[in-house]
Amino acid sequence: MKTVQPILIVGIGGSAGALNAYKALLNAMPHDTGMAFVVISHMLPTAHSQLTKILSRHTKMSVLLASDEMPIHANHVYIMPPDSDLTVENYKLKLISPRTGRNKQVDLFFISLAEAMGVRAVGIILSGYDGDGTAGCKHIKANGGKTFAQDSSAEVGNMPLSAQAAGCVDFVLPLDKIPDTLKSLAAELET
């Protein structure tokens, strides 16, 4: 089976209340979009995360725990491990462990995604406290990519509202509407 580079790499950032959002988003997402998805979630460094196992029940895509130098393929979901930072370079994931700071993992990943992918970068901010992801969304927009924020359905609205208040969000949508918008963005890049 030939592996294909993704049309878009979609970073999905969340924190408190984001588990249900991740599940709902993957439930709504077709398994054959030609995109890759990278889930960046705030976790305690000592967490024994079951996120990969949990999310694999909500999509037909392959769901993998990210590792250093892991190639990014279309129609795959990558999960950031606890106590690490994740970046992207040349369609590969770079893992930094232990993490360099607390609750800045979304910004770090989104900034590297913006620099590596330009117009092929997408950032989605889901439920969570604080403002992680806002600076990253600014970088994605500045490099020609697109940004999303979960609408008022977010269990904890701070992260999506912070990005919206900074004026760096292209789409504020309920989770079940994000897949169609992503498909439209990918189709524009393919023409």
UniProtKB/TrEMBL annotation:
Its EC number is 3.1.1.61. InterPro entries: CheB_C, Sig_transdc_resp-reg_Me-estase. The active site is at 15, 42, 132. It comes from the Bacteria. Keywords: Chemotaxis, Hydrolase. Residues 6-182 form the CheB-type methylesterase domain. It is an enzyme of class 3 (hydrolase). Gene3D superfamilies: Methylesterase CheB, C-terminal domain. GO terms for molecular function: phosphorelay response regulator activity; protein-glutamate methylesterase activity. It catalyses: [protein]-L-glutamate 5-O-methyl ester + H2O = L-glutamyl-[protein] + methanol + H(+). GO terms for cellular component: cytoplasm. One of its GO terms (biological process) is chemotaxis. PROSITE patterns: CHEB. This is protein-glutamate methylesterase. The lineage of its organism: Bacteria, Pseudomonadati, Bacteroidota, Cytophagia, Cytophagales.
